């Protein structure tokens, strides 16, 4: 009898960004001060749960890249010095991705990683979490992703197969949380 792999997918909506002003491109909106605090606390919270990624897929938007930088700064600081940093792929493909696109990127880039983070945008993060959530998912978490998740929120999904097999209802949505700041 073969043992099913245990994998964890953490879908993160970027932290609070500055409001868009004038003709400024949405793609270059930076994090607000509150967003910086959210992202740093989220890193500490993920470290407390021993959620240290081997692969990170991050949208190319400034606010998602800044979110990952702050999350990783506190997350990786909290683990022993023996941990090498994750493989990080910053991609335009996540900026306007559908939930199907997001899942495809995880299938393509997850490799042998046991923990994969995706740092992206709404409504894609909550739609992907809702699509992947299958039997055994936590009911309050499932209800939250159906209506959308606020900035600085992480959705934790357990996956019992290779990343290439990730599909609708194939994961267990264990929790949705955001840092208390």
Automatic annotation (TrEMBL):
InterPro entries: His_Pase_superF_clade-1, His_PPase_superfam. It holds the Pfam family His_Phos_1. It comes from the Bacteria. This is Phosphohistidine phosphatase.
């Amino acid at each position: 009898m073969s043992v099913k792999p245990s994998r964890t997918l953490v879908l993160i909506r970027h932290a609070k960004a500055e409001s868009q002003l004038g003709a400024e491109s949405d793609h270059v909106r930076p994090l607000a001060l509150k967003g910086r605090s959210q992202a740093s606390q989220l890193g500490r919270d993920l470290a407390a749960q021993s959620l240290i990624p081997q692969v990170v897929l991050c949208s190319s938007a400034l606010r998602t890249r800044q979110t990952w930088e702050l999350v990783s700064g506190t997350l990786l600081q909290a683990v022993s010095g023996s941990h090498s940093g994750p493989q990080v792929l910053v991609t335009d493909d996540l900026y306007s991705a559908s939930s199907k696109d997001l899942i495809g990127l995880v299938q393509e880039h997850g490799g042998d990683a046991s923990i994969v983070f995706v740092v992206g945008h709404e409504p894609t993060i909550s739609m992907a979490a809702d699509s992947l959530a299958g039997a055994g998912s936590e009911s309050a978490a499932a209800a939250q992703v159906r209506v959308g998740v606020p900035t600085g929120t992480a959705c934790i999904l357990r996956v019992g197969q290779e990343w290439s097999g990730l599909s609708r209802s194939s994961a267990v949505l264990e929790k949705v949380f955001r840092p208390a700041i």
